[in-house]
Amino acid sequence: MTPRPATADGPAEPLVHPPDRPTRLAPGGTNAVGYTLGLVSDEWNLLILRYAMAGARRYADWRDALPISHAVLTRRLAYLTEMGVFERTRYQGGNRLAYTLTKRGRDLWPVLLAIWAWEAAWVPVHVERLPRMVHRGCGREFTPVLECAACGRPVEPRDVAGAFGPSGSWSRSVPAASTRRRSESTGTAGMFPETMALIGNRWSAAILGAAFLGARRFRDFAQWLGAPPSIVSARLRTFCELGVFAQEPNPERPDWHTYRLTKKGRAFFPVAMTALAWGQRWFRAPEGPALVFTHRACGQDFHGRLACDQCASPLRGSEVLVESPS
């Protein structure tokens, strides 16, 4: 049964997030994009997942590895468990809890790989060194490449046409969780500093998504998102400062500007697509998908996959070795 949405008669019934099958969303509510952003737009969540995929299971494992407070770690572990990413079990005679990645949680590995690859290529300074990624299949350190699962060709943003699907809209794509990003609470950038600048805020993520869907003019961003002009202006300025957008004169009116994705901005596409793919696998609205994509070259529905840039083989989670930097 699909959970009942909030009405005048009372609050919404809580959603159940099964660890081994998709969540059935309430009609008309937050869609897969919103739930995905609620999880991946928080740096503590990503850092906890990074160590979980390296073998962390106990509370003490994360406390030893991360500069994280008791309260923050407790909240994030509870949230990730509620979302079906972790399964809580007991050990040492039932006195202590362990957090094990579920099928839903393990399925997040392409998102982390894409983020690491982008940060390594485009962000020169990190407080914490990024891990090395080795493909067991060919034995070499690699960079993941996004390709079309139907035809196997590498893709860039211009190769994929995207649009909202039946459950898609800007209002339904608002993140379903509200947590403070790590750099806001500690005053320092961590392992994913610029990733958080792009997706760690509701409006930033929406502006980036609009750019991938074709927005170029200030009024496009403001009208599509329904955002206050001051917010749009501030986010566009930040994206230009980061080198993700380039500001250019508008051919229609030279005193206005257009905003074009730079090479750095386009390189973030695999992060966006792997995150959206995970979300649409695990959060299903009764109306249908939130976003639909078509690969222009082969004409098929676009479903992305990551491949090894060294041997061109599609990557599998079990074949990826993540090594801590020496």
From TrEMBL:
Q: Which InterPro entries match?
A: HTH_HxlR, WH-like_DNA-bd_sf, WH_DNA-bd_sf
- List the Pfam families: HxlR
Q: Which residues form the HTH hxlR-type domain?
A: 26-127, 189-287
Under Gene3D superfamilies, the record lists: Winged helix-like DNA-binding domain superfamily/Winged helix DNA-binding domain
Cross-referenced SUPFAM superfamilies: Winged helix' DNA-binding domain
Question: The organism sits in which domain of life?
Answer: Bacteria
Enumerate the GO terms in the molecular function aspect: DNA binding
Start and end residues of each stretch annotated as Disordered:
1-27, 162-187
Q: Which UniProt keywords apply?
A: DNA-binding, Transcription, Transcription regulation
From the Swiss-Prot or TrEMBL record, give the protein name. HxlR family transcriptional regulator
- Which organism is this protein's natural source? Thermopolyspora flexuosa
